[in-house]
Amino acid sequence: MRAEAMNRAHGSRLVAGIDSSTQSTKVVLCDADDGTVVGQGHAPHPSGTEADPEAWWSALQKAGDGLLERAAAVGVAGQQHGMVALDGDGEVIRPALLWNDLRSAGAAAELVAEFGGRAWWAANTGSVPAASFTVTKLRWLAEHEPGNAARVSAVLLPHDWLTWRLLGGTGRARMGVEPVTDRGDASGTGYFSPAAGTWLPDLAAAALGHSITLPRVAAPGEVVGQTGWGAAVSAGTGDNMGAALGLGLQSGDVAVSIGTSGTAFAVSEVPADDPSGAVAGFADATGRFLPLVCTINAGLVLSATASLLGIDLAGLSALALAAEPGAGGITLLPYLDGERTPDRPNATGVLRGLTTRNATRENLARAAVEALLASLADAADRIAAACGTEPASGRVLLIGGGAKSPAVRHAAPGIFFSPVIVPEAEEYVALGAARQAAWALAGTAEPPPWPQRSTETYNGAEQPQIRERHAALRDDTVTWDERTTP
To answer: What is the spatial distance between Cα 347 and Cα 352, in angstroms, rounded to a whole number?
Structure first.
C-alpha cells in the first residue's frame, strides 16, 4: 500500500465490511459514525462445495479495490463451518471443505453416537452436528485422506483465514502472525462451547486423530491487529452473526430470511439447548447468543408454484393477494425437496383440502405463500422453545429475496401473530462486518448505535386456523412419510 493511502486510512472515519460468502465477496465502505454506505464492490467465487482459499483472497482484493485502502478499520464476516486445514508452516493442505459439502454426513452420525448422543452434543456444544459442521469434516478427512489428515497442524474457518491474511499471514511459522476467531463463528465448528466461550480441543482431536492448534478467540469489539496500510482489523465473525449485527437485532427479535432456503435466527441472552438438533445454538458477535433454524424449502416453493401456474413470481403474488386468508381451505405441506427442519429428508409436498369449489389459481397461489410462512413460523417457535421465551416476543424482521413479494409481506403478520418489519434491501452481512470494525475502532463496550435502515411495517389479524391446519398436516404426514420411505 502506498504511503499516501496509509495516511488517508489513519485520518479516515470510514470502515470496511467484507462479506465472503459461498458465491462471492462483497465489500461495503461505511461512515464509522452512522453506517452510511459510501462505496461498494463485488467479485464472484468459483462454484462448488470445496474451494482454494486463495480464490477468496483474490476476490477480496478485487471487490475491495479502491475501497479497502480508504478504511481506518476492516472486519470480515464469512461463510460458516468451512474447514481450512493448515500444515506446520501455515500453508493450506487441500481445498477447503465448505458448509454445503455433505460428504461428511456419515461422519456426523458417527460422532453423535460416539459422544453420548444428541442430548450430550446439545448440552456441551450448543448444537447437534450435521454434515455442515467443521468437526464432521475433520472426521471425514481422517477416514478418507489420512495422509492429509496427518499433516494438519491447525484448522481455521474461512473468515479466520481471511482475517489472518489481512494481518499479514501467508505462513504462520514464517510470519509469526497469530490466527484469531470470534465466539460466533467458532460456535459452528462443533468443538466449541458457546455457553462457556471456550474451545473443546479434545473433540477436535478425537475427530481428526490428533491434537491441533486452534485460533485464539478474540473478545467482541477487539482490535486483533493491523493491515499493511495501518487499518485496524476487528475479530470478524460468521455470516449469520454479521447479518444480526447489521440488522441491529436486539434480544427477543427474530429475523426470518427467505432465500433459496429459509433461516430464522434470534439474539438471545441465554444459550440454546435443543437435543432434537433443529436449533443450532450459536453464539453471536456481541457476547450474546444466536439460536438459528434452517429449512430447505423456502423461496423455491414460490418458484415451483409459479411455474405450475404458468406465471412469474409477481403474478403469483398478485394471485395470492386476490384470495382470502386460508386459501379456501387448501393447505400445502411445502417439503418439496425433503426437509431439514423437521428432519424429513425423504418427505415430499402434500396438498390437502382441494375441492371443485376451491380449486382456483388464486387459492393455490395463496396456499403456497401460507405454507412457506407457516413453515418459517414453526422455525421461529422452535427458537423460542429452545431459549425458554415466548414465540415472537420481540420484533419479526423479514429479509431475503422472498421478502420482496407483496403477498408474503401482507400474509406474514397473521401467520407469525406479530407485526412484521421489512427493512430496506441491503448487504446486511457486510454491513454487520463494517459495524464490528467501527466498534473496534471506537473501543467502546457496545457496538456503535447506527441508525436503523428505513423499514416498512405490516400488520394484520391473526390467522390461527392457518397454523393449525399446517400443524395437523405436518403431524399427520410424518407417519405416511416414514411408511413410504424406500
So the answer is: 15
